[in-house]
Amino acid sequence: MILTDISLMLQKGRANEVKKLVQEALDEGIDHNKILNDGLLGGMNVIGRKFKANEIFVPEVLIAARAMNSGMEILKPVLTNKGVKPIGKAMICTVKGDLHDIGKNLVKMMFEGKGIEVIDLGVDIDGDQVIEGIKEHNPDILCLSALLTTTMFSQKEIIEALIEVDIRKEVAIMIGGAPVTKEYAVQIGADSYRPDAASAAEWAADYLKEKYNV
Ligand code: B1M
Where are the alpha helices (DSSP H) in 96-151? Predict the structure, then answer.
């Protein structure tokens, strides 16, 4: 089955094969969410388990991540919704000390799919860079992604930095990433926590519709 093949090729880091198979799956009319969840993310979950068990190491994970990104590139036109007037603006980053960007990129694509403009600050971003970004772009929503138990504290530091310069109230803040929880979001004063990219985009779209009464 093609979704299993996508997962297996991703685990082997075969970026070109993954690209080809994702395109084939789309051409066969398979739902893009199924391709993403059962094919690409299915493969990445296996990689995560093997990495944790020390069966594979950083180089293999990097190669699999590259294959994941090339598959996502093919899905991008389906997931995003270019050409429609944006309903609002979000700014996204992976926080200081953290280089994981696949989840962030997925959240960005899903936001764009809901017609939300996204400013992407990239990875390893601290409070000063976020403050600069807010002043320059004036986003409605700030999205902070963290994948490590050691870097989720950077989410708290960024919120504290915004309070310090008195711009916390100018943005709604959503946090996410594997180690983050709803309780942690409440504890650090974020407005929202969502466990996955699709529900994050739904929350953002609802928030913007209410804010602008559309
Ligand atoms: Co690293 N890594 N990694 N890694 N890596 C994890 C996160 C880990 C869980 C692996 C493991 O041990 N099982 C572990 C963290 C352990 C912990 O902190 N508890 C880990 C570690 C330890 C490390 C290093 C420290 C390893 C080392 O060097 N010894 C190192 C740290 C580097 C750094 O950042 N400073 C490291 C490095 C790397 C690579 C560079 C090799 C590579 C990243 C490549 C890249 O991103 N370009 C990598 C990868 C790929 C992983 C795993 C295998 C996969 C992560 C991923 O992309 N998942 C990961 C294991 C795992 O997650 N199972 C692991 C797919 C992605 C779609 O999911 O990002 O969770 P995710 O996003 C989800 C949700 O979390 C949510 O939406 C997405 C789904 O729809 N979401 C949000 C994410 N952000 C959101 C924001 C929101 C809302 C939802 O609102 C703002």
Answer: 102-113, 127-137
